[in-house]
Design brief:
This protein has one domain: Rossmann fold, CATH 3.40.50.880. Helix content is about 25%, strand content about 30%. The strands form 3 sheets. It has an 8-stranded mixed beta sheet with strand order 5-4-6-7-1-12-13-16, with helices on both faces. A hairpin with a 5-residue loop joins strand 14 and strand 15.
């Protein structure tokens, strides 16, 4: 099954440590919600795209374990040192969910352009495959946003895939530079109006319109930032639904 409308879930949500050792993680309720949006049943097909972290084998092992224990049928797309799939389009179009990891969004976008992935992701999105990700895997679907890809201070990235015609600020409450940096960029007119997520929160878009904002942490929020005519920036908290479990 597939989503009944093009769906993107942009998050600042990672994984929960199980306490059983480094790299042993569990998934939270946002991933089951993604499966529900994909109409995917108990065993959704999920493709990990870890480009932003360099297709790290240790990270991929942890991700396979976390998603597998949660009932997902897991595969991955690697681009290092070369693509691991003979037909990338067939791999991605065959999923219920494509999940993109955090890391360097600048490197991710450069490699995706080199491998001509944008039209494949666009086709998958339009076909009802849920596009999802955290941090770099959130910013990539927007026009741009803030990134530590180049180190600190944070810098803007302008070459996102642009499926969502806004900018994006992940970790809005969790990293001291995020809120002032995106506010300055909006005030300058460098980036369009912005959707932001605190750590633990997520934005769900149907088509290019926000459908709902959700969180796994009771105090986390989602925000919309817009530039006023006088150049000041208004930040508005969004109604945010708590996901128990």
């Amino acid at each position: 099954m597939t989503a009944d409308a093009p769906t993107i879930i942009a998050t600042s949500i990672g994984f929960r440590p199980t306490g059983l050792g480094e790299g042993d993680w569990s998934t939270g309720p946002i991933y089951r919600l993604a499966a529900d949006y994909a109409n995917a049943g108990d065993h959704p097909r999920l493709c990990i795209v870890d480009t932003a972290a360099g297709d790290n084998p240790a990270v991929l092992t942890s991700l396979y374990s976390a998603f597998g224990r949660a009932g997902f049928v897991v595969t991955h797309l690697a681009l290092f040192p070369q693509p691991n799939a003979h037909d990338i389009r067939e791999l991605l179009l065959g999923q219920d969910i494509i999940w993109v990891s955090g890391g360097s969004v600048a490197n991710l976008l450069a490699l995706w352009e080199l491998h001509e992935l944008r039209p494949i992701f666009a086709e998958a999105w339009q076909a009802g495959v849920v596009l999802m990700g955290v941090s770099a895997g959130s910013v990539c679907w927007f026009v741009g946003g803030t990134t530590d890809s180049f180190g600190h201070p944070l810098r803007p990235v302008y070459n996102g895939l642009g499926f969502l015609p806004y900018s994006n600020s992940p970790h809005h409450d969790g990293e001291a530079e995020r809120r002032p940096t995106i506010t300055r960029l909006l005030a300058e007119g460098s980036l369009p109006d912005c959707y932001a997520t605190d750590n633990g929160a997520a934005l769900i878009f149907r088509g290019t319109r926000l459908h709902e904002a959700v969180t796994q942490l009771e105090d986390a929020r989602c925000w919309f930032l817009t530039r006023r005519d006088d150049g000041s920036v208004e930040e508005t908290p969004l109604p945010t639904r708590f996901l128990p479990g």
